[in-house]
Amino acid sequence: MRTRIKGRMQGVGVLAALLVLQLCMHLNADHLLLDDWVFYDAATGGADVLAFLMQRWRSWSSRLLIEGLLTLTTRSIWLWRVCDCAMMVLLAYALCRLAACEERPEMLAMAGLLVTSIPFAILRSTGWQATSLNYYWPLACAMAAMIPLADALWKRPASRMWRFAALPCALLGANQEQTAAALVGAHLVLEVALLIRDRKIPRAAVGVFVLALVQLCMHLLCPGNALRAQQSVALVNLRDYGQFALVDKLSIGLTSTTALLLFTWCPMLIACGGCVLASAVARRRHPAYLLLTALPLCFALFAVYVPQLLSSVDGLQAALEPFQAFGTYTLMLGPQHAADPRYAGMMCAIVAVLGLMALSLYLSIGHRPRALAAVFAFALGFAARMALAFSPTVVESGERTMLPLYGAMMLCALLCLRDAPEQSGWIKPVNAARFLCALLAAANLAGSFALAA
After folding, report:
1. What is the pLDDT of residues 343-400, one digit of tens each?
2. Distance from the first to the final alpha carbon of the chain
3. Three-state secondary structure readout of the chain
4. Are 117 and 448 in contact (CB under 8 A)?
5. Of 427, 429, 368, 408, nearest to 181 (Cα)?
6. What is the largest CA-CA distance in the chain?
7. Tell me: the pLDDT tens digits for 197-223?
8. What is the pTM of this model?
9. Distances from the Cα of 258 to the Cαs of 29, 73, 255, 404, in angstroms?
10. Are the beta carbons of 99 and 151 closer than 8 angstroms?
11. Among candidates 126, 127, 348, which has minimal Cα distance to 258?
């Protein structure tokens, strides 16, 4: 009992340290930017906030709860700072709770490092507060809303506090389109898994699913979202993506998402990839597994650097042209590109790399039927998003649209590391991954001060 209490106190200390660290970073966001002013003017200009939100519903967005909160937080920079830092702490704790390792201080510390590695610069892409409330807060709340379902899956008693907290968290988490879809999809898959295992689905989980489904329908029916999609299509010079063939949607999804992950400075991708690689090496202890997990990294280095280095070599320009366009986020549409053997080869390489990443993830979690099912569901959801849920926002808005994907990556990294040392007895690769995450978090912390300079 004494050891358990000591562990909990250490966990509280880790989360308190994360709160202080995040607050230090947020002190550098000391003014309003871009979209922040829209909500500040609505709050202080004497206009009716409800009328403002209804106008946004008709012309721009279905995120009424988020934008209503923005009219409050933009009045006080300190209110936003404290709330946003608390959301980052909630995200770290919820990730550990979903991975069933919240009582281990070292795993809470790893989650804190991963959360701190989320590129701080993306917060200001459309305004410090507008970006955080539209992406950080829904991600943290969506993770917290899934805790009752995770408790049932891990066969542990459900906390009364989290049963009550799940519904308001789902209300805010599903107010963003991507996290609403993630909540609906995750609950569909995992509640079916509970039924197959003859387990009772918690009422709180059913409530979260219903709230997420209702809000997802609201997002789909919102006239403002339809108008914004048309404007986004016009902005990036695309045809209406409702007219795209399936191969066009798959092409756009693969190239735009992969290009954003590879061609932006993404410490999150490096940190999570390092955790998966370390856990795979620690469990398998064989060069073949190291080679398998390192192949995606080789592809990334090739896609980023080789086309530039070899662009002047005679005879290679034609073969490298698709990769050069890929690096500039150029979206290549239409059957003429799908039939081009150079472009088809690049797409096949991307699909193969994604498959290797899924296989590496499975090897990192371990040879278990549930691990295989989880990785398959994750890969299937990723493929469905690529093929069916394309939005020009990926091209127009950039890296901040990746935050829901970052959440899934962080959860996968924690699941991989959770039992790796105990199963293998080889701690050195895991310690190397921890050091890498600490280094990237420190670089992001230093970068937050550079933003204020």
Report:
1. 777 777 777 777 777 777 776 666 566 666 667 666 766 666 665 544 444 555 566 7
2. 49
3. CHHHHHHHHHHHHHHHHHHHHHHHHHCCCCCCCCCHHHHHHHHHCCCCHHHHHHHHHHHCCCCHHHHHHHHHHCCCHHHHHHHHHHHHHHHHHHHHHHCCCCCCHHHHHHHHHHHHCCCHHHHHCCCHHHHHHHHHHHHHHHHHHCHHHHHHHCCCCCCHHHHHHHHHHHHHHCCCHHHHHHHHHHHHHHHHHHHHCCCCCCHHHHHHHHHHHHHHHHHHHCHHHHHHHHHHHHHCCCCCHHHCCHHHHHHHHHHHHHHHHHHCCCHHHHHHHHHHHHHHHHHHCCHHHHHHHHHHHHHHHHHHHHHHHCCCCCCCHHHHHHHHHHHCCCCCCCHHHHCCHHHHHHHHHHHHHHHHHHHHHHHHHCCCHHHHHHHHHHHHHHHHHHHHCCCCHHHHHHHHHHHHHHHHHHHHHHHHHHCHHHHHCCCHHHHHHHHHHHHHHHHHHHHHHHHHC
4. no
5. 408
6. 71
7. 777 888 888 888 999 899 888 888 888
8. 0.83
9. 29, 34, 5, 15
10. no
11. 348
Instruction: Decide if 364 contacts 424 (C-beta within 8 A).
Output: no
Q: How far apart are CA 73 and CA 38, in angstroms?
A: 12
Q: Which two tokens stand for residue 288?
A: 């073949």
